[in-house]
Amino acid sequence: MRSERWLLLSDGARPTEDLYFLESVAPRLRSEGHFAGRLDVRGWRWWLARAVLSRQLGANLVLCRTLPKAALGWLEREREAFGTIRYLIDDDLAAAAEDATLPAAYQARMARAAERQPRLLALADEVVACSEPLAARLRAQHGDVRVMTPPLISPLPELAHFAAGPSPERPWRLGFHGTRAHLADLLHIAPALEAVQRERDDTELELMLGEHAPPGLAALPRTLCPAPLPWERFRTYQASRRVHIGLAPLLDTPFNRGKSFIKFLDIAVMGGVGIYSSRPPYTEIVEHGVNGLLAGDDPADWQRCLEWLLNHPEKAHDMACAAAECCAARWPSGLRHVRH
């Protein structure tokens, strides 16, 4: 078998790069005798990266989300010198560019990426999207679009933190670890969080938004707002920090419709049982009452779900176990997740 070379050209989207290639597909390629690595093409690094690429003619390339203008233009001119090109995408960039509920800086960044996306699609032999709705949108622009669900790349923990039910001495941690792109989703369920935090004394709320946490939520009793962490530090934090209940609200917007169910894995990796919006992508993986709870858009429904889990700690533990078992069974290796 001829050994192949696979180079991921990185514009800094480290979570996407690791999830959908470097820590899922790449290990399998290496086990088969191929080379797979990352090449940073940002800023001044592009001059070094270009020299490396010029000596890697015939290599297969992986593009992720976007590329700097200089790298994109060079690759368009030199396309015939390389082998297969795959384009990985885990967000609906065009929808994000038009979503006024997103933070302005994020929206502007997504608009720049969306403007370049047609050129990336033109370069790619194959497109790999994180969800079927996102893939469906891209099939209007490309003839070979496949789906790769987010793989499990982190260890699953023991669930010893469920040993005792919630109490003022040992409060249960409710965790929201989404990015600023999900502020509107979080604000929609704020009344439920306010009610639980004010009416009970056995819960701790963690919002990893730092200074961007909504002031009304940040001021609630027993609420922590740690600053968002860079990807590698977040993974270390995630491996040691435990939650009992994870929160994954998702409003019905064009941008959210392209999302994957990555939060299901994130919550399981932190040892929790999740409450998820009752719509895709979560309805694809969550069996209500078995490996998580599905809540409607009414904040009162989220409050009911929270209080039910807090009042039934053994059931909450069982659901957290079922979620972990689901992750372990469904994602043993990355390559198996790619389908037409």
Structure description:
It is a single chain. The protein has 2 domains: 5-148, Rossmann fold (3-Layer(aba) Sandwich); 160-329, Rossmann fold (3-Layer(aba) Sandwich). 41% of the residues lie in helices and 16% in strands. The protein has helices spanning 14-22, 25-31, 45-54, 69-77, 93-98, 104-123, 132-138, 183-188, 190-199, 215-218, 231-240, 254-257, 262-269, 299-311, 313-330; strands at residues 5-10, 35-40, 60-64, 85-89, 126-129, 145-148, 172-176, 203-207, 223-224, 245-248, 273-277, 293-295, 338-339. Strands 2-1-3-4-5-6-13 form a 7-stranded mixed sheet, sandwiched between helices. Strand 8 (203-207), helix 10 (215-218) and strand 9 (223-224) form a beta-alpha-beta unit. Residues 333-340 have low confidence and may be disordered.
| Low-pLDDT stretches | 333-340
Q: From the alpha carbons, calculate the radius of gyration and give it in angstroms.
A: 21 Å
Strand coverage percent: 15-25%
> Major sheet: size, sense and barrel closure?
7 strands, mixed
